[in-house]
Amino acid sequence: MNTAPHEQVNKGFLNSSILARLPSHIDVPTYDRSQLKAGIVHIGVGGFHRSHQAAYLNELLKSPGSEQWGICGVGLLDCNRDLRDILVKQDYLYSLVVRHPNGTIDNKIIGSMIDFIFAPEDKQKVIDKLAHSDTKIVSLSITEGGYHIHPETGEFDFDNDDVRHDIQNPNDPRTAFAYIIAALKKRMVSGLGAFTVQSCDNIQHNGAITRKMITALAERLDPSLSQWIEENVSFPNAMVDRITPVTSKLDIAYVENTFQVIDQWPITCESFSQWVIEDDFCCGRPNWDLVGAQFVSDVTPFEKMKIRLLNAGHSVLGLLGSIYGYETIDETVSDVCFAQYLRAFMDLEVTPLLDDLDGIDLDGYKDTLIERFANPNIKDSLVRICSESSAKLPKFLLSSIFENIDKGRDSSLAILVIAAWCFYSDKALNQAQLAITIQDEMAVELAAYAQKTAEDKLSFLRNRHLFGNLVENSEFTLNYTKAIDSLYSPSSDIREIMNRVLSEKHRIVAEEVS
Ligand code: CS2
């Protein structure tokens, strides 16, 4: 997004002093922000944090009694500098534009963030903040890749430059986990006690995984600290959900016209929001249940349902739609060929893997997903959806493929998506020969494997780091080779291929039933 200083100065920039002058239909913080303390330090202040956790807190803060639950944001990456500059200028306020499918819009200013630390400028300040007695929860939205999970073994992946650096230099951290470990050490030594580490990322068992990764790294650094973490820190699992596209120039212009204020980094999101959390907080927590979140004793069925249906569904549409030449999710799912493929994928390859969900109507959930994807007011780009597929697909899609293999079930719909991922990584062109933008930390490596497909059809799968032993599974490779042949045949048409794979799937399912 464009973060260059705004040229027009006739409208004021968003900050605390302007709130009282905003049009009356804008929902502004009604609470005294000067009374808030930062009980939560959040690492990874992306659009999702600002539309989700910070928005829940904004609602909660409107009633008295939660003043200790303000947020201090932390940006670990050099690219977070612009965000810091904007938030500081705006007194950490930002606009949230909530777009309902029927065109209704809720316009809000969110006030729950009260501070932001840009780590590259002062690492110690971050460690001190995490170790401060006001800090009760350290929450994370650091994306799937930020967890350093080895895709094949599920263990902590020590084979990473930043991790190697952190092991050599624990007082000069680079990764989120090393900051947390440094702060927990300070708290252990000072006798202050632990904080809760709360993951807000789309990883199944995100709390348990965070615990496993942090204790593995801590074990290398200081075994007694690792044990203290095991015994004292809570890591609640949670399912988080709200579709939040990347902010566009149109979003900035909308806020300027509607709010009559210049916000350089507003957030737009869908109206749907869900947060299901295991109630395991060692140092207290906000009453998020008063503002729509749900506390449960076991979040497993909810997170599996969401990640395997919504997130995987996004990747299915994203990769196949990119090859067709679509640009957004709503555009892709409005094409009946894509909508039918998605629904069949959800019904036939994921639903049989899901546990019983008391009180959840799974068919209704899937209908709602398709409606949410089709929300014409949310322009969620396929570039965002396909970004970092190398970190997402193992958790969203390959997990279902492996489970189906174990159960002796067919996965041909998902296999076409993996073959499409190979084609996408190889060519970076859609079928009209226009360039596709690929954002993936592993893009070069993925392209290198994919580009050998012409001489070795299974080449992409030979990346064992991602695919484990899939290349040795003859049923998988049979379907995969067929998909590769169709995708790479001259003048191939992705919609025709999808229709063919789908009819074949229906034939297989009919045979399974009879
Ligand atoms: C998306 C998610 O990144 C992705 O691929 O599937 O960001 C998705 O929009 C959110 O998880 C919705 O809750």
UniProtKB/TrEMBL annotation:
Coiled coil: none
Record-annotated Mannitol dehydrogenase N-terminal domain positions: 39-289
EC number: 1.1.1.-
GO molecular function terms attached to this record: oxidoreductase activity
Pfam families tied to this protein: Mannitol_dh, Mannitol_dh_C
Tree of life domain: Bacteria
Enzyme kind, highest EC tier: oxidoreductase
Signal peptide stretch: none
UniProt keyword terms in alphabetical order: NAD, Oxidoreductase
InterPro entries (UniProt xref): 6-PGluconate_DH-like_C_sf, 6PGD_dom2, Mannitol_DH, Mannitol_DH/Oxidoreductase, Mannitol_DH_C, Mannitol_DH_CS, Mannitol_DH_N, NAD(P)-bd_dom_sf
Protein name as annotated: Mannitol dehydrogenase family protein
Organism: Zhongshania guokunii
Lineage: Bacteria, Pseudomonadati, Pseudomonadota, Gammaproteobacteria, Cellvibrionales
